[in-house]
Amino acid sequence: MSELTFADLGLADPLLRAVADTGYTTPTPIQAQAIPQVLQGGDLLAAAQTGTGKTAGFTLPLLQLLMRSPSRQAGRPRALVLTPTRELAAQVEESVRVYGKHLPLKSMVMFGGVNINPQIRALRSPLDILVATPGRLLDHVGQKNVDLSAVEILVLDEADRMLDMGFIHDIKKVLALLPAKRQNLLFSATFSDEIKSLADRLLDNPKLVEVARRNTTNELVTQKVHLVDRDKKTDLLIHLIRERNWFQVLVFTRTKHGANRLAEKLDKIGIPAAAIHGNKSQNARTRALADFKSGELQVLVATDIAARGLDIDQLPHVVNFELPNVPEDYVHRIGRTGRAGSPGEAVSLVCVDEFSFLKDIEKLTKQSIERFTIPGFEADLNVKPEPIPMGGGARGRGQGQGRGQGQARSGQPRQQHNGKPRHQTESKPAGHGHRGAPARAPGGPRPQGGSGRGRGGAPKTS
Length: 462
Ligand code: AMP
Prior knowledge:
Layout: H1 13-22, H2 29-40, E1 44-47, H3 54-66, E2 79-82, H4 86-99, E3 107-110, H5 117-122, E4 129-132, H6 134-142, E5 153-156, H7 159-164, H8 168-176, E6 183-188, H9 193-202, E7 207-210, E8 221-227, H10 233-243, E9 249-252, H11 256-268, E10 273-276, H12 282-294, E11 299-302, H13 304-307, E12 317-320, H14 327-334, E13 344-350, H15 355-365, E14 370-372
Helix pairs in contact: 2-3, 3-4, 6-8, 14-15
């Protein structure tokens, strides 16, 4: 049987031409499922992680549904896409432009952290598709710059993250401004009870599409843990970047301060690096991202929320300089690589303080991640774990883009002391690297199953 094409999905010619221009030939599974469903006009509940091609999955049919009667009214969009972060909003709107380039439809993006006036000016022109973060959208609503009473299609993109960031009240306010009769599309990587109840309230008899089990990681991403002492992490990162000629590395830290410090250190020793996080101006973030994509910057150091939705084609390396305290963030972080069919590597630099985070991640993703030791960076697993300082205080996420309402789900520094680290054994370096004794850190039996990757506990040299 021949492979499915975009034409098979019922897309119109101007959209097929735009897709062909991007070079994509085969729809991804989420596109194959979502596009025909959305074209039929009903509500949709889609379980899809970033990297699955979900953006085109809703953008293409949305453009097709709107293409016949472009808006003639200023500031009165016919489709509204809500996203949790500025970066994701910008990228979704970019996709709208790319896929809609042969159509007469108008789009705009709005988010906070930038001057509102250009957005007000843009709202004085006809508008079909508005991509927005909830906070800034409500600011415009308050100023009566935008009228949501003509919205025919609502998309909630990365709805789980919007709830994590405390946007539920803003979302409810927006929903109250929309016409009752409309098409709703809800995309979420995970399905908490909160998401389920939002879906129950919002969606009418939705079709369900699901392409990845929730909280699973992408098979194309090779995951590794490098056990290392906490004060050797920077040196190990530099070593890896240099030894392995890593040219495009996205590095995650837990805090904004940590991101700045690391980027400065790398830059100082001649590895071009910049940090992006919520305290940076939008312009600085956009510039850093553009320089990273173009290859001018070798390393981009990011915090979780700032990196959410970052779409970098064929990003080969993601490094968790620090493990996230919220295990779902691990899945999102490593989802930056291994996108749309290209392989990637996700390396976590883990010190004894982080074993409980590692355990949570392995529990969530139902896999064990293989441990490796880099010669010269053998960790002393007998040192006493220290509590982990959280950048954002008890908020745990260390970021503040959610209009000050972000909730930490597990934001308390975790104590894993009892005098001893919870892992059981450690391996001793035997000449080159570790051999022999299995290091079953962190403690307790290993979850089995999952991807089948990375079983067996002995750290390997890599
Ligand atoms: P998303 O999950 O929407 O963030 O998309 C992830 C990446 O996949 C983006 O870089 C897209 O440009 C790319 N992409 C989307 N659809 C396809 C496709 N059908 N074939 C190959 N790449 C795609």
